[in-house]
Specification:
Structural class: mainly alpha
Strand order of the largest sheet: 1-2
Number of domains: 1
Shape: globular
CATH superfamily: MetI-like
Largest sheet: 2 strands, antiparallel
CATH class: Mainly Alpha
CATH architecture: Orthogonal Bundle
């Protein structure tokens, strides 16, 4: 019976075959290759030779990599705060608007930036931070704060905070949509019961909204962790990891080791550790939220 069902659906399977083929070729094969080469010495000038855990021992002694981890921690914490808190505040304000038409207009305006390619937004922020023609320095000059102007991405002390500030006011469209969907899914009976009990807006937020939005917060946190640990394109374009190592992160270090220095085996080992770190953060987040929901 199972073979008969498969044969009757052979056309559908035939159309799906190219998709699975490309997924295997461009997703799974590179990932498995990186896993294998993490345990090899693979340089530009020669083939890959198995070297056991030598690449991982080298990582423990790599001062540049260790310093980049500190920068990554700051960026990860900032990304989580921006993605979890700011969109939630905006979603609450939109949800409580009495005018449905105004809510729809504002929601559309907040989502409009999602159609702009991410790299375009990064380049725009590069112009904003430009020390000569940048909007930020010109705005400071216009209000008489010339002493605060500087090369934001070229100063060791301000480069990392400037990178964290990209995207201000940090209302991510996807996070906003998830929060709004969660708020709209709250049963009206529960909200009415809270109003009857005299729950204020603040009390309702802590007792009703926030507990019922844990699922959305878990999803946003997982996506933010994955995106933060994998992202190096914006830093490569804006700062190249500089000045010095002020904005150097492990993913960027992996890129340089592979494509600037030709240490493909060592870069594969860094990528493997990043994968393990992403997996660990994701599993810990999911278990933590699940435990909190059970306690609630």
């Amino acid at each position: 019976m199972r073979r008969g069902a498969i044969w009757r659906s052979r056309t559908s399977y035939l159309f799906l075959l190219p998709t699975f083929l490309f997924l295997w070729l461009f997703n799974y094969v590179p990932a498995l290759s990186g896993l294998f080469h993490a345990f090899t010495e693979w340089e530009t000038t020669g083939g890959a030779h198995f070297n056991g855990l030598d690449n991982f021992r080298r990582m423990a002694q790599d001062e540049f990599l260790l310093l980049s981890i500190t920068n990554q921690v700051w960026l990860l914490v900032a990304s989580l705060l921006k993605s979890l808190i700011v969109p939630l505040i905006v979603a609450e304000m939109l949800f409580h608007l009495r005018s449905g038409r105004l809510q729809q207009v504002l929601r559309t305006l907040f989502l409009a930036p999602m159609v702009v390619p991410g790299m375009v937004g990064i380049l725009l922020w590069g112009f904003i931070y430009d020390p000569n023609i940048g909007l930020l320095n010109n705005a400071l000059d216009a209000v008489g704060l010339h002493h605060l102007t500087r090369a934001w991405l070229g100063d060791w002390h301000t480069a990392l905070p400037a990178v964290i500030g990209i995207g201000f006011p940090w209302v991510g469209g996807l996070a906003l949509l998830l929060y709004l969907a969660g708020l709209n899914a709250i049963p009206q009976d529960l909200l009415a019961a809270g109003a009857v009990d005299g729950a204020t807006s603040w009390r309702r937020f802590w007792a009703i909204d926030l507990p019922l939005l844990r699922g959305q917060m878990k999803t946003i946190a997982v996506l933010t962790i994955i995106g933060s640990l994998q992202d190096f394109g914006s830093l490569l374009v804006l700062t190249g990891g500089g000045p010095g190592l002020a904005t150097h992160v492990p993913a960027l270090h992996m890129y340089f080791q592979a494509f600037r220095f030709g240490h493909y085996g060592y870069a594969s080992a860094i990528g493997f550790v990043l994968f393990l770190a992403t997996l660990a953060f994701t599993v810990a987040n999911m278990k933590f939220v699940a435990a909190a929901e059970e306690m609630g």
